[in-house]
Fold this protein.
Amino acid sequence: MSSEKATTRSGRAVCYSARDAFYQCLRECGLLEVKGDIPSKCKQLRAKFESACLPSWVKHFDELQSKRARELKTQYAAINSKATTAAGNLAGAAQK
Amino acid sequence: MSLRRQALATGRLGLRAFAETQQQQLLHPWQQAAAAAWRQPARSLQLAHAQDAAWTRLAMVRGFAAEAGQAAAASGKGTGKKSPITFNSMLLGVGCFLAVVAVAQNKAQQKVEGMMQRSQEVVGKAAVGGPFTLTDQDGKPFTNENLLGKFSVLYFGFTHCPDICPDELEKLAEALDTIEAEAKYQVRPVFISVDPQRDTPKAVKAYVKEFHPRLIGLTGSEEAVKACSKAYRVYFHKTGDSETDYLVDHSIIMYLIDPAGEFVTFYGKNFTARQLADSIMQHIAKWGDSSAAAQEAAAAARLKTGTAGSQEGLAQR
């Protein structure tokens, strides 16, 4: 029964939209990934996500989000460090 | 006197002396004067010895040359024979030498090119592919022989794949339609399951028909799937804790097989549908360029002997 969620196009579409809605909510709460407690605002979307997709898929998507969050953090850190150390302040220097 | 006359005048042994005389004439006048009056007072002992030795040798050679020249001139005058070493003969000799060198270089280059071509063919054919026997979505057997006759694209995946397999199969379907529209060629798409536990022929049938009407779905026993994956060097690994709900890590690769059943190339996740279509169409065109008759004969021979090419590939491992 739950296999239908995974192996049909319509089933997958339902899962994807629930996933996207949940992660969008997380982003609005300022979170990039699922770590520890989920904010109360997103709890319902989380429940919907977990019912629309197989547990292995939920785990898979959460891991992908964590990986993406790590990548973004590294990028932000690099940009920030360059902003303060690069010759000429990024905030004010004219583009040459 | 022309160069040729001078050479003739110096006769048989004249070649070396001729060169020496030429060298002599290239010397500065003061050097020529020094050579003429070669015994100089008040030189350092070392320099004196070295110079003496050099001039002595030169004088000896010139002496021989002069004698030989006289003898040759005398004999030449007497018998009317000419020296075999003429300018023309020298030219001929040099020409022959250059010709031999050119032929040798050409042969060497051909050999290297042949080796390179053969090594590329071997790498392409021997490394990937091999005989396999699986079951298609209608429960009928499907072997590597069923891949003959048309270009095929193989993709290994599983029906419970969260995102990658659906994306890749959508991409493949789009590429297939593009190739059919632009090159008027129907590539044979094949989906091979790496999850034999859950992917029965019925499950595979429901799965593949959603992507493309021509998409063939293959599955089989655990051993059969393992054997086929090994032949195509596909990595796959079951993850997760549950017995019924798990994912399968696998290499995300599409394999292009030519109408003779040989592996041509592979495409990774980074290829777009357009890039896939363009590349496959290039291979189709290249295949069509080689004489159709020869290809048909080769394919027929392979059918007779039972994919001898793949057998070789297997043995090489």
